[in-house]
């Protein structure tokens, strides 16, 4: 199935980033959230990013303008009728199982029978969302990475009920979006986060026990390990609240100490220091 219209549920960093990728690659996008003003700000931010990319010569001005025209917004997150005719819907709201379950239950009611229903969850059990939809065979995980317009990887996550047709439709959508895909079963953390989270937690332990400064920990990884970004800066980019939620899901599933959120991470989240999105995490951002 070739997708022409896609609904994106959630206008935060991930949702708006996925919307930008989809619009740039020729899809008509409906971006949905709880508040119209929030949706409008997200679309304005997408258009500003597209304009900057054009100014830097990375894309043409014509492509940026065309992508901007493919974006529309809606605040009907309760009834979701704005995405009823979309061939695919990608949910990218907060990592809260109750919130996501409510959305998938409604998507199952309003979407066209053959619609591909995808979640961008990075840690929650996809099978629960599939069951809530009432059409589990058409539910799949499409885990994009932050920021979606810069990082091409998508983890394609199948549940026990995902059909081969659904998997192929999801892979076709990712090809339309020019993404690199890896396939994985429905397990907390999938591939990348299951490897990344313990690495970040080891870096946090080094910081909280006074072994080294945040700057030197990240410098060692960038220069010594040839990483593009250090683990603490990566945590700030992910969002410390999101990182904590991912860890809690994995710790509940696996019970392994390496997935338990360090004390310093929990304290920063409690203080509202969530990383780049709040201007402060392990580092300060202006």
TrEMBL record:
InterPro entries listed in its UniProt record: 3-OHacyl-CoA_DH, 3-OHacyl-CoA_DH_CS, 3-OHacyl-CoA_DH_NAD-bd, 3HC_DH_C, 6-PGluconate_DH-like_C_sf, 6PGD_dom2, NAD(P)-bd_dom_sf
All residue ranges annotated as the 3-hydroxyacyl-CoA dehydrogenase C-terminal domain in the record: 189-285
Residues that bind NAD(+): 10-15, 33, 95, 100, 122, 146, 277
Pathway: Lipid metabolism; butanoate metabolism
Molecular function terms from GO: 3-hydroxybutyryl-CoA dehydrogenase activity; NAD+ binding
Site feature (Important for catalytic activity) residues: 143
3-hydroxyacyl-CoA dehydrogenase NAD binding domain residues: 5-187
Family: Belongs to the 3-hydroxyacyl-CoA dehydrogenase family.
Name used for this protein in its record: 3-hydroxyacyl-CoA dehydrogenase
UniProt source species: Tepidiforma thermophila (strain KCTC 52669 / CGMCC 1.13589 / G233)
């Amino acid at each position: 199935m070739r997708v022409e219209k896609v609904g994106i549920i959630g206008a935060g960093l991930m949702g708006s980033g996925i919307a930008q990728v989809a619009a740039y690659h020729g899809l008509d996008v409906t971006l949905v959230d709880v508040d119209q003003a929030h949706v409008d700000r997200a679309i304005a931010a997408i258009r500003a990013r597209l304009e900057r990319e054009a100014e830097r010569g990375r894309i043409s001005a014509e492509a940026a303008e065309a992508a901007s025209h493919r974006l529309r917004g809606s605040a009907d997150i309760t009834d979701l009728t704005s995405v009823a005719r979309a061939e695919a819907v990608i949910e990218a709201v907060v990592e809260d199982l109750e919130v996501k379950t409510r959305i998938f239950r409604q998507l199952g009611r309003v979407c066209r029978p053959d619609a591909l229903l995808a979640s961008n969850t990075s840690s929650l059990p996809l099978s629960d969302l599939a069951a809530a939809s009432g059409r589990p065979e058409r539910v799949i995980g499409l885990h994009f990475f932050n920021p979606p317009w810069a990082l091409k990887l998508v983890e394609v996550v199948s549940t026990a009920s995902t059909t081969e047709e659904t998997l192929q439709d999801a892979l076709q959508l990712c090809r339309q979006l020019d993404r690199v895909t890896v396939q994985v079963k429905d397990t907390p953390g999938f591939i990348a986060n299951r490897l990344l989270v313990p690495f970040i937690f080891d870096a946090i332990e080094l910081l909280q026990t006074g072994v080294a400064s945040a700057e030197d920990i990240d410098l060692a990884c960038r220069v010594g390990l040839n990483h593009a970004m250090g683990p603490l800066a990566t945590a700030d980019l992910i969002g410390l609240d999101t990182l904590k939620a991912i860890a809690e899901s994995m710790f509940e599933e696996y019970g392994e100490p390496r997935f338990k959120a360090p004390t310093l991470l929990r304290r920063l989240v409690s203080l509202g220091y969530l990383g780049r999105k709040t201007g402060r995490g392990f580092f300060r951002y202006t």
